[in-house]
Design brief:
Order of helices and strands: HHHHHHHHHH
Largest sheet: none
Number of strands: 0
Shape: elongated
Number of domains: 1
Structural class: mainly alpha
Distance between the termini: 22 Å
Radius of gyration: 27 Å
Length: 306
Amino acid sequence: MLTFERRPTWLRLVLSWWGSPLPRIKFRLLFVLVLSGILTVWQERLQFNAPVTLQALSLLGVALGIFLGFRNNAAYDRFWEGRKLWGRLLNVSRALSRNLLAYLPLEATSDTVQVPAYRIIAFAHALRMQLREQMDVDALAPFVPASDLPVLAKARNVPNVVLLQLGRDLQALHRRGLVGEQASVELSRQLFDLSDIQGGCERIKNSPIPHTYTVLIHQIVALYVVTLPFGLVGTLHHLTPIVVLFVAYTFLGLDAVGDEIEEPFGEDLNDLPLSSICRNIEINVRETLGEAELPPLWAPKNGVVS
């Protein structure tokens, strides 16, 4: 039975450290706080007049907010496209394994169905490992014949080779007369869908947001939060460090969030739970085959579903 976790309360979200950008920016905030404190003491004791005006800071803050908004929207588009691709992978994997079982005659042996169905699981795991640069061919051993492992170990694109072997399996079933012409076309179409999903993921992985754009936004954010105390100390006096801390948290936090979701296939807190999706695919495919002993759902590690 499916269970759904209740949405956290507003107060719990406000006080939450889990999921907050604070762990990523805590030292930057500490630097800004110390700088603000030094400037405040300097202003109050030596009557130092900073050459930065509130009007200039306001204009820079508005421009920076718009710039951060565009950048974060671009990063979220990458994240959401990755999520749609992996949701589609889950659906296509279910459909392909289900069609394999439905199209084959009832007298077909279990190995005839299991080998290509298990290759679907192998493809999902191989794609996850390739996107995370954690390729381990031995981890695919439970899902492919032993004779495949040396070939996969030499491959530069392991998921593509798994799809090639799966395509050969489907063609062999067609040549043996176990799968009809129409069914073979449908299975080939779903095989192409898997290849298309892989290409979409590789496009996101290999086409990051231009480096110059990222460097520029980091430089502008750093310049703004460092010059902010100079513009506020003459007006806010002792309150300067507190106000600067809250403003800096806003801009540095947005900057950190954009960094984190820009690469959706990693293992950070807010990245896509690829391991969990792969485990769901494995469970769904093996359940379709009628297996009773299924692996458990992927458990969160340190509060993170990876």
